[in-house]
Structure formats: structure tokens, C-alpha cells
Amino acid sequence: MFNPDVGSGRCDFPGGDAREPFHSMKRLLAFPPETTLYTGHGYPTSNEYTSRDQLPYVTVGEQKKKSKHIKNNSSEDDFVKWRSQRDKEMSEPKLVHQAMQVNVRGGRMPSKSHDGKAYLLYLINVPKVLVTGNQRCNSRRIRI
């Protein structure tokens, strides 16, 4: 959960699940209104969203009143549907591939597959048309 005018983070990265931030936000918003939340993201200072000073924290009351991504009475399914649709419409962040290489799932290795092996999968950018033998792929994201 970011500051109210920024909302919530994307959930469409590998291992992402829109249900997790929904539950986290609900737990945080259950605290008393005067509780201070340090969001970890002070941006934006001035861009398309707003023109405000950087804020290192907000209160639970401010989140409940102003958050553009979570409403006190929105259902989990509504949030997941909205978050998933919004994520599909967003462009890829500039440094996502570099971040993934460094982050490697926050230090957690992937769980084992059906064959008993753990596979670490990365998204890669490929030309619009990838030729493999006689097979053509018109996708920008592939699994290898």
C-alpha cells in the first residue's frame, strides 16, 4: 500500500497475487485511525498524479478517507478484478528485468515442480516475431 493518491502496487509480476495486497491493506486499515503507516514510497513530488511534497507516512484515517485503490466496503473479488485489469493495461516498468535479476523472488527460491525440480523463470523481451524452425511466435513474452 502506497500513499492514498498513489494507491497500491502492481501484482502482475512473477509470483504476484492481487489477493495478498488486498488482505494486507485490510489488516492495516483495521488499526485505529490515528495509527501512522510508513508506506516506503514517498513519490510522487510532482507528476501526472499530484503535486505534493514527499510524504514518508500517512495515518490509517487518511488512507480510509483518500485511498484511490481500496474502499472500506470493497470486496476481495472486486479488488482483484480491478487490480488485475489495471495491471494488464499498464506498460512494463523501465527496469523490471534488471530488478528481477537482483531481486530473485525476494530471496525465496521457487517451489518444486511436478518433476521434483525447482525452476526459476524470467520474463524476457524478444522480437515481435520469433522464428524457431517452422514455428512463429507473435508474442513479446515467452517462457523458455
Description:
With 144 residues, the protein is an alpha+beta fold. Helices cover 28% and strands 8% of the residues. It has 4 helices and 4 strands. It has helices spanning 19-29, 60-66, 76-89, 96-103, and strands at 36-38, 57-59, 130-132, 135-137. The chain has a two-stranded antiparallel ribbon. Strands 3-4 form a two-stranded antiparallel ribbon. Strand 3 (130-132) and strand 4 (135-137) form a beta hairpin. The longest helix has 14 residues, at 76-89. The protein is globular. The model has no long low-confidence stretch (mean pLDDT 75). One of its GO terms (biological process) is glutathione metabolic process. This is Hydroxyacylglutathione hydrolase. One of its GO terms (molecular function) is sulfur dioxygenase activity.
* Percent in helix: 25-40%
Low-confidence stretches: none
Radius of gyration: 19 Å
Structural classification: alpha+beta
Report the principal-axis shape.
globular
Give the terminus-to-terminus CA distance: 33 Å
Kindly estimate the percentage of residues that lie in beta strands according to DSSP.
Answer: 5-15%
